[in-house]
Amino acid sequence: MRNTLGDLNNHLFAQLERLSDEDLSGEKLTEEINRAKAVTGVASQIIANGSLVLDSIKLADDKINANTAIPKMLEG
Known about the structure:
The protein is mostly helical and 76 residues long. Helix content is 68%, strand content 0%. The chain has helices spanning 5-19, 26-62. The longest helix is centred in the middle third of the chain and has 37 residues, at 26-62.
């Protein structure tokens, strides 16, 4: 099984739909809110990891040209 950013997007929208359920209340709503917080935390880490990989690839591509300036994101 291979998860993709598209799958993550689907999970986030499914979570949003569960939170939008007007029949949820009390303990069930609290459980769903806690689940949403957990999903959001994991999703944030997945996105940060993907961003790091992309930045690494960009940096590796740029090192081929010795005259390339340091990317703005890495400048102090």
